[in-house]
Specification:
This protein has 314 residues and is of the alpha/beta class. The protein contains ten helices and 13 strands. The strands form three sheets. The chain has a five-stranded mixed sheet, sandwiched between helices. A five-stranded mixed sheet has the order 7-6-8-5-9, with helices on both faces. Helix 9 crosses helix 10.
């Protein structure tokens, strides 16, 4: 490797910085002598905290500034939580490496109730994810769901101050920050199917940046990438946006890949669940096939309605 530092673009949040520092240490271990620098920056998704992401442009707000930094030569690679990365990347960018997947499940956190099932009627639950909202409303239409944005500490503070009876977060983030003791219950996928890419750290670079791609090859975890490909293929086929409550989760058993999918209305009144399995070598086609089967079962009409509603309100 050359002596030129490899520069990592990252968001400034505590979790994003942990992820970037983790990749930095892995790169240094894999390539002794390689200088690796962090380029922290604030993204639009971090700055706008009083509205749901769907109202201000979607999860792409977390990655756009990082891609601009790479495009302008201020950074070489960017580290992402893959659940925050849109299913379609700009033409000159690619996810070139992923780390081994962490816990993909959703965490139920409460100071008063030991299980999600123990929540009383009308309990206040904090989450801003349309995916989580749709699944929770389908299971418990009596709950009062409230907007929950900000970093992990801010979200936990709202719970501690008694504003909410429970909140939902990703287990992986809590575990990476060393605060998994806050997790009251890990939600089963039958109740809350994880987001596409949840628990996966992905590293993005320009497609023409061979130096970065070569350096990152040592970090790449093929099995996690296979699962990610199936999930992102599912989302891309649906053309889903931040307005669409979509979830997909793939598991790998030997050479067999199982892909679970969820599509729902924001109020939980209409939901679709299905699964497919097949050879891991066909990850992309399995995700695409599951999406098309669910579209044919009625989900496409629902998604089209959501797209029209989003266009009308923009």
């Amino acid at each position: 490797m050359s002596n030129t530092p490899l520069r990592i673009a990252t968001r400034r949040s505590k979790l994003a910085m942990w992820q970037a520092e983790h990749v930095q240490s892995l790169l240094r271990a894999a390539h002794p002598g390689l200088a690796v620098e962090l380029v922290p920056m604030s993204t639009q998704g971090d700055r706008v905290l009083d509205r749901a992401l769907a109202e201000v442009g979607g999860k792409g707000l977390f990655v756009k500034e990082l891609e601009v930094a790479m495009q302008e030569g201020r950074a070489d690679i960017a580290v992402h939580s893959m659940k925050d990365v849109p299913s379609e990347l700009p033409p000159d960018f690619a996810i070139v490496a992923v780390l081994p997947r962490a816990n993909p499940l959703d965490a139920f956190i409460s100071r008063r109730f030991k299980r999600f099932e123990d929540l009383p009627r009308g309990a206040r639950v904090g989450t801003s994810s349309p995916r989580r909202q749709a699944q929770l409303r389908h299971a418990r239409p009596d709950l009062r769901l409230e907007l929950l944005r900000g970093n992990v500490d801010t979200r936990l503070r709202r719970l501690d101050e008694g504003e909410l009876d429970a909140i939902l977060l990703a287990c992986a983030g809590l575990e990476r920050l060393g605060i998994a003791h806050h997790i009251t219950q890990q939600l089963d996928v039958e109740l809350s199917l994880p987001a596409v890419g949840q628990g996966v750290i992905g590293i993005e670079s320009r497609t023409d940046d061979q130096r970065s791609r070569t350096a990152l090859a040592a970090l790449h975890h093929a099995d996690s990438f296979t699962r990610l490909v199936a999930e992102r293929s599912f989302a891309a086929t649906l053309g889903g946006s931040c307005h669409s409550p979509i979830a997909a989760h793939a598991t790998l058993d030997g050479g067999t890949l199982v892909v679970h999918g969820f599509i729902g209305a924001p109020d939980g009144s209409e939901t679709y669940r299905d699964r497919v399995s097949g050879p891991a070598t066909e990850a992309e086609s399995l995700g695409r096939g599951l999406a098309r089967r669910m579209q044919s079962a009625g989900a496409e009409a629902l998604l089209e309605r959501l797209r029209q509603e989003a266009a009308a309100s923009s």
